[in-house]
Amino acid sequence: MQKFRILLATALVALTSATSPVLAREATPAAADFSVGPQYDTTHVYVPVADFDRFVQSFAATFDGKANPGGTFQVTPTPSKTRSQLVITPVGTVSVFGFVTPVPYPFGEERVGYLVKDMDGAVAAARKAGAIRVVNSFPDPIGRDTLVQWPGGSVMQLYWHTQAPNYPAATTVPESRIYLTEDAADSYVVSWKRFAHATVVSDDRSAPGEEIGQPGKAYRRIRLSSGYGKTTLIVTDGALTWPYGRELTGYEVADLDGTLAKAKESGVTVLVQPYSASGRRAAMLQFPGGYIAEVHSGAER
Prior knowledge:
The protein is α+β, with helices and mostly antiparallel strands. It has helices at 2-19, 21-27, 52-62, 119-128, 182-196, 256-265, and strands at residues 42-46, 66-67, 71-73, 82-89, 92-99, 112-115, 132-140, 143-149, 155-161, 175-180, 199-208, 218-226, 229-235, 249-252, 269-277, 280-286, 292-297.
């Protein structure tokens, strides 16, 4: 009888372990991380084709970078043609597009491209994390692409290359700067953490408004880090002064004043003069063709 009870108890434990939702969740491995590295983050910059060369030259000169050989390609799933070139710098990379045909919708709305190890797996993981496909996966001249949208409306490209690229590691990792309202901020964080295996570096609910052109007013700033690089969420009421909200990326440099001097020599306009807040000095730049970027030096808080 005692032996029967022991066998029964063992069977019940095994059955409970197999059917308990809590235990099943604990036993399920975490979703795969499809990131490759932040040196493969490429901010997408769309400029008028007439300004294409001036932008490439000014961006490379400002950040001590180098442009890869470019060309004219079809990079969308519908007929179109664009000049395209990659500019790699120690502080971040840009993919530059100068369309010679009208830009087909929804291209131009994405802010950044992230290289992934497996396109189908990454898309499935993004959808499971709360993203929606804006454009289904499609072939491009060197691989595959898709556009996905996250809570709050931020659109990004996921891309995969037939032949794996090999870019040098960045000296500093650029930050993707995303403006949201409180309606979407927490949902974005949950989704991005799940997809990107991101960690919250800081969540400051009283960040100084000087950082977004509103001295004396606090706002919420969330900084995240993942295999895709840095993400800064700027959470406001949406009432922003120009040019805040128009920049896509923040670039960390060792010498802000030296960078600004090179920028001015390269035809770049300083929209916001250097200011200090939260342990960093920062400014806002506008490059030929209209691209706006934040640039900063100093430690982050």
